[in-house]
Amino acid sequence: MRTILGIIPVTAVFLILLSTRLVFTNQHPIPAPQEQPATATAPCPAITIISARGTTEDPGEGRLTTIASDLANGHENRERIPLDYPADLFPYSVSLFKGIKALNGLLNMSVTSCPEAKIVLLGYSQGAHVIGNTLCGGAFAEQGIDLRIGDKVTAIIFMADPRHVPGKSFNVGSSTRSGLFPRPDSEGCDHYASRMQSYCDSGDPVCDSGFVQEVHRAVVEKYRADAVAFVNRLLS
Protein backbone atom coordinates (compact mmCIF):
# COMPACT_ATOMS: atom_id res chain seq x y z
CA MET A 1 0.00 0.00 0.00
CA ARG A 2 1.28 3.42 -0.86
CA THR A 3 1.98 5.76 2.04
CA ILE A 4 -0.54 8.54 2.49
CA LEU A 5 1.60 11.58 3.07
CA GLY A 6 -1.28 13.99 3.42
CA ILE A 7 1.13 16.88 2.87
CA ILE A 8 3.96 17.84 0.57
CA PRO A 9 7.08 17.98 2.78
CA VAL A 10 9.03 21.21 2.66
CA THR A 11 12.10 19.34 1.41
CA ALA A 12 10.12 18.24 -1.64
CA VAL A 13 8.77 21.66 -2.58
CA PHE A 14 11.83 22.58 -4.68
CA LEU A 15 11.53 19.36 -6.68
CA ILE A 16 7.83 19.93 -7.20
CA LEU A 17 8.43 23.45 -8.40
CA LEU A 18 11.11 22.20 -10.77
CA SER A 19 8.79 19.49 -12.01
CA THR A 20 5.90 21.86 -12.54
CA ARG A 21 7.94 24.32 -14.56
CA LEU A 22 7.10 21.97 -17.40
CA VAL A 23 3.44 22.40 -16.57
CA PHE A 24 3.42 26.15 -16.83
CA THR A 25 5.71 26.45 -19.84
CA ASN A 26 4.37 23.59 -21.97
CA GLN A 27 0.62 23.91 -21.83
CA HIS A 28 -0.69 21.41 -24.34
CA PRO A 29 -4.49 21.34 -24.17
CA ILE A 30 -6.15 17.97 -23.87
CA PRO A 31 -8.39 16.87 -26.73
CA ALA A 32 -12.15 17.02 -26.23
CA PRO A 33 -13.55 13.52 -25.77
CA GLN A 34 -16.11 12.09 -28.13
CA GLU A 35 -19.69 12.28 -26.95
CA GLN A 36 -21.05 9.01 -25.62
CA PRO A 37 -24.83 8.48 -25.55
CA ALA A 38 -26.47 7.08 -22.44
CA THR A 39 -27.31 3.39 -22.55
CA ALA A 40 -30.78 2.02 -21.94
CA THR A 41 -29.48 -0.24 -19.15
CA ALA A 42 -27.80 2.53 -17.14
CA PRO A 43 -30.39 4.88 -15.60
CA CYS A 44 -29.14 8.33 -14.81
CA PRO A 45 -28.42 9.33 -11.22
CA ALA A 46 -29.94 12.48 -9.77
CA ILE A 47 -26.57 13.41 -8.26
CA THR A 48 -23.02 12.53 -9.32
CA ILE A 49 -20.29 13.06 -6.71
CA ILE A 50 -16.77 13.11 -8.18
CA SER A 51 -13.84 13.09 -5.75
CA ALA A 52 -10.23 13.90 -6.68
CA ARG A 53 -7.90 12.68 -3.93
CA GLY A 54 -4.70 14.29 -2.71
CA THR A 55 -1.08 13.57 -3.54
CA THR A 56 0.08 9.99 -2.80
CA GLU A 57 -3.28 8.90 -1.39
CA ASP A 58 -4.30 5.39 -2.41
CA PRO A 59 -6.76 5.06 -5.33
CA GLY A 60 -10.26 5.95 -4.24
CA GLU A 61 -11.63 9.02 -2.50
CA GLY A 62 -8.87 9.39 0.09
CA ARG A 63 -9.59 11.87 2.87
CA LEU A 64 -12.62 13.05 0.91
CA THR A 65 -14.39 9.76 1.68
CA THR A 66 -16.09 11.24 4.73
CA ILE A 67 -17.55 14.18 2.82
CA ALA A 68 -18.61 12.01 -0.11
CA SER A 69 -20.25 9.55 2.29
CA ASP A 70 -22.11 12.28 4.17
CA LEU A 71 -23.45 13.68 0.91
CA ALA A 72 -24.40 10.29 -0.48
CA ASN A 73 -26.18 9.27 2.71
CA GLY A 74 -28.36 12.35 2.54
CA HIS A 75 -29.68 11.75 -0.96
CA GLU A 76 -31.28 8.98 -2.97
CA ASN A 77 -30.36 8.04 -6.53
CA ARG A 78 -26.77 9.22 -6.37
CA GLU A 79 -23.47 7.86 -7.57
CA ARG A 80 -19.93 8.33 -6.25
CA ILE A 81 -17.01 8.37 -8.66
CA PRO A 82 -13.38 8.56 -7.47
CA LEU A 83 -11.37 10.27 -10.19
CA ASP A 84 -9.03 7.75 -11.79
CA TYR A 85 -5.66 9.51 -11.90
CA PRO A 86 -2.19 8.86 -10.42
CA ALA A 87 -2.10 11.53 -7.67
CA ASP A 88 1.70 11.17 -7.80
CA LEU A 89 4.20 13.55 -6.23
CA PHE A 90 6.84 12.82 -8.88
CA PRO A 91 6.46 13.73 -11.66
CA TYR A 92 3.73 16.08 -10.46
CA SER A 93 3.19 17.59 -13.91
CA VAL A 94 2.41 14.21 -15.47
CA SER A 95 -0.01 13.36 -12.68
CA LEU A 96 -1.72 16.73 -13.08
CA PHE A 97 -2.04 16.25 -16.83
CA LYS A 98 -3.59 12.80 -16.42
CA GLY A 99 -5.99 14.09 -13.79
CA ILE A 100 -7.20 16.96 -15.96
CA LYS A 101 -7.61 14.65 -18.93
CA ALA A 102 -9.57 12.15 -16.85
CA LEU A 103 -11.86 14.78 -15.34
CA ASN A 104 -12.46 16.48 -18.66
CA GLY A 105 -13.55 13.18 -20.17
CA LEU A 106 -15.69 12.26 -17.17
CA LEU A 107 -17.51 15.59 -17.14
CA ASN A 108 -18.17 15.48 -20.87
CA MET A 109 -19.49 11.94 -20.63
CA SER A 110 -21.64 12.67 -17.58
CA VAL A 111 -23.23 15.78 -19.05
CA THR A 112 -23.83 14.16 -22.42
CA SER A 113 -25.26 10.95 -20.98
CA CYS A 114 -27.23 12.42 -18.07
CA PRO A 115 -27.78 16.14 -18.68
CA GLU A 116 -30.20 16.54 -15.77
CA ALA A 117 -27.87 15.09 -13.14
CA LYS A 118 -26.44 17.49 -10.56
CA ILE A 119 -22.65 17.22 -10.43
CA VAL A 120 -20.64 17.76 -7.24
CA LEU A 121 -16.84 18.08 -7.45
CA LEU A 122 -14.65 17.47 -4.39
CA GLY A 123 -10.90 18.07 -4.53
CA TYR A 124 -8.20 17.77 -1.88
CA SER A 125 -4.69 19.17 -2.41
CA GLN A 126 -3.54 18.01 -5.87
CA GLY A 127 -7.13 16.98 -6.54
CA ALA A 128 -8.22 20.59 -6.09
CA HIS A 129 -5.47 21.62 -8.52
CA VAL A 130 -6.87 19.16 -11.07
CA ILE A 131 -10.45 20.39 -10.69
CA GLY A 132 -9.47 24.06 -10.69
CA ASN A 133 -7.46 23.86 -13.88
CA THR A 134 -10.12 21.77 -15.59
CA LEU A 135 -12.84 24.30 -14.85
CA CYS A 136 -11.01 27.62 -14.73
CA GLY A 137 -7.97 27.18 -16.95
CA GLY A 138 -4.26 26.73 -16.55
CA ALA A 139 -1.73 24.10 -17.45
CA PHE A 140 -3.09 21.44 -19.81
CA ALA A 141 -6.53 23.09 -19.87
CA GLU A 142 -6.06 26.42 -21.69
CA GLN A 143 -9.02 28.60 -20.64
CA GLY A 144 -10.88 25.79 -18.94
CA ILE A 145 -13.65 23.45 -19.96
CA ASP A 146 -16.47 24.63 -22.24
CA LEU A 147 -18.98 26.51 -20.09
CA ARG A 148 -21.76 24.40 -21.57
CA ILE A 149 -20.17 21.60 -19.56
CA GLY A 150 -18.87 23.63 -16.63
CA ASP A 151 -22.23 25.24 -15.97
CA LYS A 152 -23.72 21.81 -15.34
CA VAL A 153 -21.61 21.55 -12.18
CA THR A 154 -23.78 22.30 -9.15
CA ALA A 155 -21.20 22.49 -6.35
CA ILE A 156 -17.42 22.59 -5.97
CA ILE A 157 -15.37 21.98 -2.83
CA PHE A 158 -11.63 22.63 -2.65
CA MET A 159 -9.64 21.52 0.36
CA ALA A 160 -6.07 22.90 0.58
CA ASP A 161 -5.88 24.00 -3.05
CA PRO A 162 -2.25 24.54 -4.19
CA ARG A 163 -3.50 27.41 -6.40
CA HIS A 164 -5.24 29.22 -3.54
CA VAL A 165 -5.09 33.01 -3.50
CA PRO A 166 -6.35 35.16 -0.61
CA GLY A 167 -9.24 37.57 -0.87
CA LYS A 168 -11.65 35.48 -2.93
CA SER A 169 -15.34 35.47 -2.02
CA PHE A 170 -15.43 31.68 -1.95
CA ASN A 171 -12.49 31.30 0.47
CA VAL A 172 -13.10 29.79 3.91
CA GLY A 173 -10.50 29.52 6.69
CA SER A 174 -7.73 31.53 8.30
CA SER A 175 -5.26 31.61 5.40
CA THR A 176 -3.90 35.01 4.37
CA ARG A 177 -1.22 33.84 1.92
CA SER A 178 -1.13 32.26 -1.51
CA GLY A 179 -0.47 28.59 -2.13
CA LEU A 180 2.43 26.94 -3.92
CA PHE A 181 1.09 27.81 -7.38
CA PRO A 182 -1.22 30.84 -6.95
CA ARG A 183 -3.88 31.21 -9.62
CA PRO A 184 -3.58 34.43 -11.67
CA ASP A 185 -6.65 36.46 -12.61
CA SER A 186 -6.42 35.14 -16.17
CA GLU A 187 -7.13 31.67 -14.81
CA GLY A 188 -9.52 32.76 -12.08
CA CYS A 189 -12.50 30.75 -10.87
CA ASP A 190 -14.78 33.72 -10.20
CA HIS A 191 -17.31 32.40 -12.73
CA TYR A 192 -18.00 29.55 -10.29
CA ALA A 193 -17.83 31.65 -7.11
CA SER A 194 -21.46 31.16 -6.08
CA ARG A 195 -21.06 27.38 -6.35
CA MET A 196 -17.65 27.03 -4.74
CA GLN A 197 -16.03 26.90 -1.32
CA SER A 198 -12.23 26.75 -1.00
CA TYR A 199 -10.95 25.81 2.46
CA CYS A 200 -7.44 26.75 3.61
CA ASP A 201 -5.95 27.55 7.01
CA SER A 202 -2.88 29.51 8.01
CA GLY A 203 0.28 27.43 8.13
CA ASP A 204 -0.77 24.90 5.48
CA PRO A 205 2.35 24.05 3.40
CA VAL A 206 0.32 23.58 0.21
CA CYS A 207 -2.39 26.24 0.10
CA ASP A 208 -0.87 28.85 2.45
CA SER A 209 2.88 28.40 1.82
CA GLY A 210 3.32 27.60 5.50
CA PHE A 211 5.21 24.96 7.44
CA VAL A 212 2.64 23.20 9.64
CA GLN A 213 2.05 19.77 8.18
CA GLU A 214 -0.81 18.88 10.51
CA VAL A 215 -2.85 21.83 9.26
CA HIS A 216 -2.86 20.28 5.80
CA ARG A 217 -3.76 16.84 7.12
CA ALA A 218 -6.60 18.15 9.26
CA VAL A 219 -8.39 20.47 6.84
CA VAL A 220 -10.90 17.98 5.43
CA GLU A 221 -12.19 16.75 8.77
CA LYS A 222 -12.15 20.24 10.28
CA TYR A 223 -14.41 21.67 7.60
CA ARG A 224 -16.32 18.50 6.76
CA ALA A 225 -19.66 19.60 8.23
CA ASP A 226 -19.44 23.07 6.72
CA ALA A 227 -18.65 21.69 3.26
CA VAL A 228 -21.49 19.16 3.41
CA ALA A 229 -23.97 21.84 4.49
CA PHE A 230 -22.84 24.14 1.66
CA VAL A 231 -23.25 21.44 -0.97
CA ASN A 232 -26.62 20.33 0.39
CA ARG A 233 -27.95 23.88 0.14
CA LEU A 234 -27.02 23.95 -3.53
CA LEU A 235 -28.54 20.53 -4.13
CA SER A 236 -31.85 21.41 -2.50
Report on the structure:
The chain is of the alpha/beta class and 236 residues long. It has one domain (45-235): Rossmann fold. 36% of the residues lie in helices and 13% in strands. The protein contains seven helices and six strands, in the order H-E-H-E-H-E-H-H-E-E-E-H-H. It has helices at residues 10-25, 65-73, 92-113, 126-136, 147-150, 213-222, 224-235, and strands at residues 47-52, 78-82, 118-124, 153-159, 171-172, 196-199. Helix 3 crosses helix 4 (126-136). The radius of gyration is 16 Å and the shape is globular. It starts with 9 loop residues before the first helix and ends with a helix.
The gyration radius over C-alpha positions equals 16 Å
- Strand tally is 6
> What would you say the CATH architecture is?
3-Layer(aba) Sandwich
By DSSP (H or I, 4+ residues per run), the number of helices equals 7
Strand order of the largest sheet: 2-1-3-4-6-5
Pattern of helices and strands:
HEHEHEHHEEEHH
CATH uppermost class: Alpha Beta
Name the features.
disordered N terminus; Rossmann fold; alpha/beta; 236 residues; disulfide bond; globular; six-stranded parallel sheet; 6 strands
Entry summary:
This protein has 236 residues and is an alpha/beta fold. It has one domain: 3-Layer(aba) Sandwich (Rossmann fold). The protein contains seven helices and six strands, in the order H-E-H-E-H-E-H-H-E-E-E-H-H.
What order do the helices and strands come in, and which of them pair?
Elements: H1 10-25, E1 47-52, H2 65-73, E2 78-82, H3 92-113, E3 118-124, H4 126-136, H5 147-150, E4 153-159, E5 171-172, E6 196-199, H6 213-222, H7 224-235
